[in-house]
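hey can u check if this looks right to u? its 108 residues, i copy pasted from the old doc so theres a chance i mangled smth
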Amino acid sequence: MEKKVKAAAKEAVEKVAAKAEEVKAEVKAAVEAKKPAKKAAPAKETVAVYVQYQGAEADVQALVEAAKADFKASHKRTSVKDVRLYVKPEERTAYYVVNGDCDGKVTY
């Protein structure tokens, strides 16, 4: 009788283990189904602006970088939050205002 009980117990354990594997697979499938689909990264847009006047050309992005560098040279501990650039091609000069109160100019 003891052998029958051990055999029945072993059979029950095997059935439970098999059922546990089935449930585990179902849970894994359900979790995978709920994951959001990966979105493709949006393509980065590139914009280049040039000012042309009487045969001369100025790259606006280069002028912005020059204005930031000029500002940082005289205001070492101030961060740049806002830059406004005013290009005057007839003078070959770009005037700038940084953070609403600091101004200067760069020539090109």
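The beta strands are 50-53, 56-59, 83-88, 93-98, 102-107.
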